[in-house]
Amino acid sequence: MCRVSEKGRSFGFNLFGGDLDFPERYTLSIPNKVIDYFDTLETDEEDIENILWKLGDAAIAAKDKFAIYNRSTNDFLLFNINLNDAYDGFYINLSSCFKKNNLSRIKKIYPIITIN
C-alpha cells in the first residue's frame, strides 16, 4: 500500500531472511527529493520488497546504511535504516539512487545486497 504525503511516498512491508526468526515490519520511505531519480530506474518498490523479504537480515545487520545493487540494470540504491519505535519495526529511507558501473569504492563503505 502506497501512502503519498508532502514529504514523499511510503510503503509498509515485512522483511525476512537468513537469521530472522519471523518477519519484521518496516516502512520504506521515498522522499520527494529522490522520487524523480527513483522513477527513472528499472528497479521498483516491488523489487525492493522481494529482495528484503529474502535478505532482510542483511539490511538489519547494517549499522545505519545499506545499499541494493541491481546487477542486470546497474541500478544502485542507498538506504538509511533506523528503528521505528512507533510501529515496533524499522524505518528505511531511500537517500540516493543512480546508475553505477563500478562499485569497488562503495563496497568498502556500505553493505551491499545484490539483485540478479
Q: What topology, given as strand order, has the largest sheet? A: 1-2-3-6-5-4-7
Average pLDDT confidence is 85
Distance between the ends: 25 Å
Structural class given helices, strands, pairing?
A: alpha/beta
Which bin fits the share of residues in helices? 10-25%
Order of helices and strands: EEEHHEEEHE
Main sheet record: 7 strands, mixed
| Number of E-type strands | 7
The fraction of residues assigned to DSSP E strands is 35-45%
Radius of gyration: 13 Å
Commentary on this structure:
The protein is an alpha/beta fold. 24% of the residues lie in helices and 43% in strands. It has a 7-stranded mixed beta sheet with strand order 1-2-3-6-5-4-7. A hairpin with a 4-residue loop joins strand 5 (75-84) and strand 6 (89-99). The two termini are 25 Å apart. 27% of the residues are buried.
